[in-house]
Write a structure and sequence with these properties.
450 residues; mainly alpha; 3 domains; six-stranded mixed β-sheet; two-stranded antiparallel sheet; binds zinc ion
Length: 450
Amino acid sequence: MNGDAGAALNTGALGTTALSDAGVLDGDALDNTTEIVSRSDAGVVKPLLGDPLSNRERTTLEDRFARADSPWDEFIDALLATAHARGFSLNLRSLTVDVILTDPEPDATMSRFGSADDLRALYLALHVADVLRELDLRIEREWEELGPLQEPFRAQAAEPDVRMEPLPYFRRIRTKMHQQGTPDPMRYWREIETDVKIFGVRVRNGVHRELVRRLKAATEKSPSDLTSLNKDASLNEDTTVVGFQPRTIKDKEQLSNHAWGLAIDVDAPWNAYITQRGVMDVIKRHTTDHVDLSKDPIDDRLGARQDREAVLERRYETLKKASYELKVWLAEVEPMEGKLFDAVQRAADELQLAKGTKDQARITQAQLTYEQARKDYEADKGVADYTYLRTHLSGEDLMNWTREGFLNLPLDVIKMIKFKEGVSWGGEYERIKDFMHFELAPSQVPDASR
Ligand SMILES: [Zn+2]
């Protein structure tokens, strides 16, 4: 303990502020606490205090706070656990000691501590609070260090389903990274290259160095240039590649590999992300092979026997054909749906007019016409499927699918990235399909501390 009492004085003061932030101590407690701790120099309190945190205790606490969704809520439990591990019980009421600590008579204060454990608990609480405070500071330093990478965090934090301040959002993602096995996410974020081109297209938000290395290797081996991908598209939009995105997978708690900078989305408008069972059912009904996107369109047993590249070729062919057939069907059903829908609208208008005339014969006729128009509209299965898509997809997706289908990536690009560089393609996921998406797992990055 020797010289530690002085050090405890300083960290203790910090800790007390943190404690009052947490509502554990009154803010005025600071000076009196200093008094109590400083008395340890005189040998009065010192024997009661116990040791400051050991490295092991500190590491355990740091880890606990860094993976907690709300660290201050974790504080009391962490304190109890630390005290318990030291073999003394902790009466929490002794920590709400604002009366004692604001006592003008330090000697009286001392005498009013219930037990030695109370004082040791307070001393411990100050150190535990310091761990949390240091974590706060470290997170702020990391946020500053991000530089241009702050922008993707700001963008995600401003999303309508998030709406948070950027720094707390950064903290939330950092916590999730920890929970998902990456206690030091900066090890990945520092490796993100922000000014990089893949297949001739600039990667928005940058991408992890390891993925760049592999994709560049694929580019050298493949003559494909993505910049020409949309030459034939009826909308001549530029091809886009998006990399780092600090966010969870859509509608899930789990982080996307985009959060590690280890995924890219190529040409998102023309390469769909399909997760809804009902949408998959519509696609199944309107493709000749009845392709079910909730499964692998290629029999897995074939995969075991055949060359994996040949399986990918067949899978791609099946998907591409389905994409084309869906596009053709959408182009047909869209005007049909429009026609039947207009008929219902016209009949409804006429019925309204008829009611105004009080001409009973005309009203009856209009009613019949209206009911028939509705029946015709509802009876058409194709139209019902189209209506389903219209209500379950974004307007942009439906328009894009109608013009170009849901898959436009060339097979040679997919093959090159997948087979030569070990990157996974979201078009081969089992239950959903993410045709725009290529990724590495964090464990595929060499030398990264996990
Ligand atoms: Zn993606």
